[in-house]
Design goal:
The protein is mainly alpha-helical. The protein has three helices and two strands.
């Protein structure tokens, strides 16, 4: 794998500033090694022969996986709330999940 030299702290801070990130000194040290490693990986990928390979954004091969927008009979609000243990303002009430402190 091609190697890239370790980046200086100034280069890392400059790059972070371009995307409006503030980094701790520990993060600057970490990224000064990680970014060159990432660039080396990109260099390897750029050497791959991709002529004739169709671009894809879906590796599963699925197409149009949505169902038809057909109408069907649904429950009325009263029917939907009929078995709800607790109701609040016409909705099913549940216990809180998030701590509000």
């Amino acid at each position: 794998m091609p190697s890239h030299k370790k980046m200086s702290a100034e280069e890392i801070v400059h790059i972070a500033g371009l995307v409006k990130l503030q980094l701790t000194p520990q993060e600057v040290d970490k990224f000064s090694e990680l970014i060159p490693q990432t660039l080396a990986t990109i260099d390897v990928l750029q050497e791959l022969d991709t002529i004739g390979v169709e671009p894809t954004s879906n590796v599963a091969g699925l197409a149009d996986v949505y169902r038809d927008g057909t109408q069907s009979t649904t429950l009325s609000q009263a029917e939907a709330l009929a078995n709800a243990p607790d109701r609040l303002k016409g909705l099913i009430a549940t216990k809180g999940v998030f701590d509000r402190s």
